[in-house]
Amino acid sequence: MEPLIDDISHLSGPNNDISHASDQRVLVTGATGAIGGAIARMLVAQGTAVRALSRRGSDRSYLGDSVEWFEGDVREAGQVRRAVEGCDAIYHCAGFVGPLHYRFSDFEDINVSGTRNVIESAIQAGVRRVVHTSSIAAIGGKGGEVADESTVDGDLMAGYPQSKRSSEELALAATSRGLEVVSVNPAVVYGPRERYFSRLIRMHVKGRLKVTAYPERMIPLAYLGDVAATHILAMESGVSGERYIVCGQSVSLGEFLSVLSSASGVSEPRWTAPNWLVKAAIGVGRATSPITRKRPPLRISDLSTLGPTYDGSKAAEKLGLNYTPLEDGLAKTVAWLRG
Fold first, then answer.
1. What is the CATH number of domain 24-255+304-338?
2. Which of 192, 168, 170, 177 minimizes the C-alpha distance to 244?
3. How much is the pTM?
4. Between the CA of residue 50 and those of 10, 116, 175, 192, 335, what are the distances in Å?
5. Which residues are bridge partners to 272 per DSSP?
6. Which long-range contacts link 195-202 to residues 24+ away (Cβ below 8 Å)?
7. How far apart are CA 226 and CA 309, in angstroms?
8. What are phi and psi of 161, to 5 degrees?
9. What's the pLDDT tens digit per position in 181-235?
């Protein structure tokens, strides 16, 4: 087990004061994931009693016996109700990302039905407040434009983006029934224990990233520690019914790899795949998805623009979040990968 006293220094931003102790008991769903685990770790460090919901067989070593574990699945309403009982607040972080996943029904079952079970259980149990982990995928946005919390994009991809939009709408609608709900919308998350985008970082650190594509495409980024801190700040002072985007910086892929190269000491990829080849590969991937049971995470049309960027200033101005500079976040991530 990783010792709890690794002091969350790799999580916390340099100036985020989230050390407010609490005598409440809070439930964290998805506590074995990167975001839920980081939130739980911060809460424990500040003296909050944490109950963690995890599925059978999940790796609990990161939190160990520092939390009260409840075995359960957010898709099972009865299991969720038992976990919620006696809790004052909930961080609902459980969700399914699956960038290449084929069955859209799984996104609906976990992200939408799971959220419905958490919200209904919270209302029945008299929970005061829920912070819901959403995503910039639920916001969308047009290429070349800057999206913020007021953006409504009707052209979302099926699967993860649509399920996150639906789950967020479901959660925020509960404010009309007396439950306080705040939505946190992280950009592309990177950092220690993050499992998806950090694959790119890991490949680079190991010297295996030889070819890139679309180096000019913008990537909106959120360091994991900033995402966790925003959840806790949102629980304390976020306005019920509102969204808070977490996006520390938006950089092109080329810029990102340049900063990563400096942080790791590993040279940048030497080759760039031509755009036509990438589009052809996506087209083939979508055509063969009924056979491979995998769907490309992008559409060909998504590559026709630089991609949207996101304004994360509301979390800084209204919640007091201090963003971690990209150089520092990547240095911590690289150190953890090599640790």
1. 3.40.50.720
2. 168
3. 0.90
4. 20, 22, 24, 21, 28
5. 212
6. 195/34, 196/97, 196/99, 198/333, 198/337, 201/260, 201/330, 201/333, 201/334, 201/337, 202/337
7. 18
8. -60, -45
9. 999 999 999 999 998 888 899 999 999 999 888 889 899 999 999 999 999 999 9
